[in-house]
Amino acid sequence: METIYDILKAEHDQVAELFQQALSDGSKVSFVKIRIKTDPHMMGEEKFFYPLLEKKEELRDLVSEAYKEHNEAKALISEMEDMDERDENWTAKLSELKQSIDHHVQEEESKVFERARNALSQKEAEEIAQQYIEFKRSYMNRVETGEPLA
Ligand SMILES: [Fe+2]
Ligand SMILES: [Fe+2]
C-alpha cells in the first residue's frame, strides 16, 4: 500500500514541474497552480505527518525547522498573491520562492523522511497516507465549490 512518503514525494516532483512552467511563462496562472498544489500539501503535512514526528525526540529539531520553512514559503506565496505578473519583482520573487521550496523539499526527502522511516511503522506510514488523501479530497472539493478552506 501507498505510504505518506510516496505521496509527498510524488507531489514534490509535481511542484518542481510546475515551477519549470511558471519560470518559463512567468504567468500568474502558473503561480496559482503552484499555490493550489502547495497550500494543501503543507496543511496536510502539518495536520497528519509533522505532529506524529514531533513526538519523537530524534525528529523534533528537524520538524521545527520544517515549520519555519513552511512559514517562509507561505509568506512569499501570500506576497505574490497580491502581486501582478507584470511587477518588476515578479521573477525575482518566483525564484526566491522556488529556492525556498527546493531547499525545504531537499531537507524533507533527505532527512525528515529518512528518520521518519525509522521512527514510524510501515502501518503508520500507510495510515497517515489515507488521512492525507482524504483531507486532500475534501480540500479540493471545497476549492471547486468555492467553500471556505480554513
Ligand atoms: Fe513536503
Ligand atoms: Fe513540508
Summed up:
With 150 residues, this protein is an all-alpha fold. Helix content is 83%, strand content 0%. It binds fe (ii) ion (2 copies).
Mean pLDDT: 96
Task: Name the helicity range.
Answer: over 70%
CATH class placement: Mainly Alpha
Number of domains: 1
CATH superfamily: nmb1532 protein domain like
Provide the low-confidence segments as ranges: none
- And the CATH topology? Four Helix Bundle (Hemerythrin (Met), subunit A)
Looking at the structure, what is the overall shape? globular
Secondary structure class reads mainly alpha
Which molecules are bound besides the chains? fe (ii) ion
Count of DSSP strands: 0
List the total number of helices: 5
Radius of gyration: 16 Å
Question: What would you note in describing this structure?
Answer:
By secondary structure, this protein is mainly α. The protein has one domain: Up-down Bundle (Four Helix Bundle (Hemerythrin (Met), subunit A)), CATH 1.20.120. Helices cover 83% and strands 0% of the residues. The longest helix has 30 residues, at 90-119. The protein is globular. The mean pLDDT is 96. Bound molecules: fe (ii) ion (FE2) (2 copies). One fe (ii) ion binds next to α1 and α2.
List keywords for this structure.
single chain, 150 residues, mainly alpha, Four Helix Bundle (Hemerythrin (Met), subunit A), 5 helices, 83% helix, binds fe (ii) ion
